[in-house]
Fold these 3 entries.
Entry 1:
Amino acid sequence: MKSRLFVAAIGVPLILWVVLWAPMEVFTAFLAALSAIAAWELMKCVGAQKHRVLCTIAVLGAVFSVGFSFIKVYIYGELVVAYAMLVFSYAVFKGGEVKFQQIMAALFAMFIIPYAFTSFLRLGGPRGFQRPFLLLPLLFSFGSDTFAFFAGLTLGRHKLAPRVSPKKTVEGALGGLVGNALCGVVFALVMNLGFQYDISYPGIAVLGAGCSVAAQLGDLSFSLIKREFGIKDYGRIFLDHGGVLDRFDSVIFVAPVLGILMPLLGLR
């Protein structure tokens, strides 16, 4: 408990500063660091840590992907092919020692995870790029997790996905949806009254509920991977909170979904 409080006391103010006030170069470096650590955690999860070259390729690829997004060089299609050729070249050189699941983990680490994190760089608001809207992936991820936890704790009766996460319930999932819709309305209320925005309350509520679905899917998806490979946590960088993939699993799914839904709902 003490380590959890310590991490929260240090981490929350740091993240708020990075998201809201730090220079964009610092924010991008933060995203690159998250992507690199997540890449290493995933490679370790699938047992690829003995292939140091492959792990290095995955980690550096994750960092380069974030850098390309920052300088607005959107060549992800070409990068996927280039990354695949590089990874398979190493696998062929090793003569079959590298498993296919490790190859796919490397590509996921080099492409999907960084793309998800750099969705922050593509988020804006009704007036274009505005820093407060960068809080939405975090708000809708952690808000959904929190409301789902307490709803499940007090009302949970029916298991949601018992083979993947035995403690999650249907009631908890519904609580996450409702709670996230409420979080969206509160965010809109603050922005409308405090900063003279005109955010639609129904629109932001729908956005919050949709992001709750993405958040819970992200949580369950990375739990599925952990269960398959028999690990409890991806890492220990956040002490008892686990690793980057333990804490930001929901964000990885929510941030890109926000980029898709915000324009559709007239919020960007």
Entry 2:
Amino acid sequence: MRKLKITELNRISAEEFKAADKLPLVVVLDHVRSLYNVGSVFRSSDAFRVQAVYLCGITATPPQVEIHKTALGAEDSVDWKYFERTQDAVNELKSQGYSVQAVEQVEGSVMLQSFRPEEGKKYAIVLGNEVKGVQQEVVDLCDGCIEIPQFGTKHSLNVSVTAGILIWEMARKMKL
């Protein structure tokens, strides 16, 4: 096996990305503290052509050196919007016809492997703060909650890892 050169990967430009069809998915970050996590979410969102990233509360916005370090320019290709209150982002998405799903451990959550997005429907996933998770007030506004099953001694994953898993699984299930 020969490792491919960067010139052989046929990557699209940021301008081509902007014009390309997107996965009907918005990623909402609810008070995410780490700028490196924010950048990583942008990078995963770029990889799967996510519609947009909504940055809420204390979540930092580009341009920031720390975001760029992990996003590697994806903060320029992926559309983003800032909201002071995550509740306002959720309400806007719902008014635009999105089904909003918090990624959280709650009573009655749907395990990720069992979640079945409806064909033709738009989705948003809300990812929470590294310590406190998704705010209860935000969970209350969501249409449902998705949970990633875990089998070790820890009860959570890093928010950027969670984003990568969810974005990949949604892209796979939504047939990108």
Entry 3:
Amino acid sequence: MKDRKLLNSELGRVDAATYKTLPPSGTVLILDNIRSAHNVGSAFRTSDAFKVDKIWLCGICACPPSAEIHKSALGAEDSVEWEYASDTLSVVRNLREEGYIIIGIEQTENSVGLERFKPESGKKYAYIFGNEVDGVQQSVIDECDLCLEIPQFGTKHSLNVSVSIGVVLWQTIS
């Protein structure tokens, strides 16, 4: 089978200024103490692809401008709105007051398999992704409305946080 790759100019992508004028998706990400700037950059790039409204960078997360973030984000740090907060809990509580459903992406006693979760149209969701070693802080899990778990079938019990972000956004937004 012969199939020609499309050129970037044929993809009809919007520029960063136009991206910011698109209707909101109702989805935000909260990154809870992500230690790798490359993972933060990947979060920006994936968020751009799925039209996430905003990324909250909490705790030890690196923030733009950063060469390491830019290396993975490829400019998406300029299209996706972001804000830094030292305390993840305050962000969670503020978003709840704004009407967001707070969802931790974590393996917990009562987590729901991602494949069983169906977001409701018209509702706003805040997805929390945690530190590469320790995951989402327990104090943050305690504030969640729900925890989702990505089904896994191998010997490992976790995915890279940037991979998890892609899986969750594809499943919940597409």
